[in-house]
Amino acid sequence: MKDLYFPFISNLYCTFQDESNLYFVIDYFSGGDLRYYLMKGKQFSENQIKFILACLIIALEYIYSKK
Q1: Residue (of 39, 40, 30, 38) closest to 10 by Cα position
Q2: Distance between CA atoms of 67 and 52, rounded to whole angstroms?
Q3: Which domain, by its residues, includes 55?
Q4: For the purposes of burial, counting CB atoms within 10 Å of the CB of 8, is it exposed (0-12), middle (13-18) or buried (19 or more)?
Q5: Is 16 helix (H, G, I), strand (E, B) or coil?
Q6: Within a domain: 3
Q7: Strand-pair category, 22-26 with 12-17
């Protein structure tokens, strides 16, 4: 993940760990993440769902192209 730089993927800068936890230093997203809104039971409009899915597909295509 550290070698991937793409607008639809959060950038990983470094990792470190202590005795019981693994930490990831990634980009800060002030609006939260998709899981946050799904857990709150947020209802998305059809256009919002299309946008989210398009972003996911583009990100997966990029990851696949990098093997």
Answers
A1: 30
A2: 23
A3: 12-65
A4: middle
A5: strand
A6: no
A7: antiparallel
Contact 53, 60 (CB under 8 A): no
Residues 19-39 have pLDDT tens digits of 999 999 988 888 778 888 888
d(CA 49, CA 43): 10
- 39 belongs to a structural domain: yes
**Measured between alpha carbons, how far is 1 from 37 in angstroms, rounded to an integer?**
24
Asked if pLDDT for residue 59 goes beyond 80, the answer is yes
E strand map for 1-67? 12-17, 22-26
Cα–Cα distance, 6 to 61 (Å, whole number): 11
